[in-house]
Amino acid sequence: MGVDRSGRGDWLTTRVDALANWARKNSLWPMPFGTACCGIEFMSVMTSRHDIARFGAEAIRFSPRQSDLLLVAGRIAIKMMPVLTRIYEQMPEPKWVISMGACASSGGVFDTYSVIQGIDNFIPVDVYIPGCPPRPEAILDGLIAIQKLIKQDSLSHYKPPLEEAST
Ligand code: SF4
Fold first, then answer.
1. Per residue in 87-113, pLDDT tens?
2. Residue 43 — left, alpha, or beta (φ > 0 → left; ψ -120 to 50 → alpha)?
3. How far apart are CA 44 and CA 21, in angstroms?
4. Of the four listed, 63, 109, 127, 152, which is most buried by Cβ atoms within 10 Å?
5. What does the pLDDT read at residue 160?
6. Rounded to an integer, what distance in angstroms lies between the CA atom of residue 52 and that of residue 138?
7. How far apart are CA 4 and CA 11, in angstroms?
């Protein structure tokens, strides 16, 4: 990125990729999919004490079509997995996924037939947050990890939706 320091005007040069990534990483719209105690812990990062708004991610959405960050918090039962998969598929590109806590990432203590032993068996996960439950600071750390991924991203990775591609 270049900035004019000649005093003849205010301008800068950059790449479209860098500009889009800068905007995206600082304006994430998370969709929490909380099914258990981790979901309760996630609520604490929304408080003024932890202030997720510092990272531009305070616009929580409960519609996948308005979200670009899926945050899975809690154990996922086998019967719930089709719902989670459908939500993921309804999110527009580009999108990212955080698996929060031991249960979402590996089933945690629920080593049983009815609980999914890691959501990454069904949907791609970008960042795993360890803990049972993870502390709010760990959740923010996971968010920063997503921002770092976005910073390295390229617009060329994404295909336009089918309707646009056909015109
Ligand atoms: S990881 Fe721990 S805190 Fe999170 S949902 Fe599982 S049992 Fe609850």
1. 999 999 999 999 999 999 999 999 999
2. alpha
3. 27
4. 127
5. 64
6. 12
7. 6
Report pLDDT digits (tens) over 135-157.
999 999 999 999 999 998 887 77
Q: State the residue for tokens 């009815």.
A: 114
- Give residue 63 CA to ligand 1 midpoint distance, Å: 24
Q: 24: CA distance to ligand 1 center in Å?
A: 29
pLDDT at 84: 97
Return the ligand 1 atom nearest residue 37 CA. 8
Residues with CB under 6 A from ligand 1: 36-38, 74-75, 101-103, 108, 132-133
Tokens of 120: 């990454």
Which ligand 1 atom sits closest to the C-alpha of 109?
7
Using the mean position of ligand 1's atoms as its centre, give its distance from the Cα of residue 41 in Å: 9
Nearest CA to ligand 1 atom 6: 103
Q: Which residues of the chain have pLDDT under 50?
A: none
Residue 166 has a pLDDT of 54
Which residue has its alpha carbon closest to ligand 1 atom 5? 74
Nearest to 131 by CA among 145, 120, 142, 115: 142
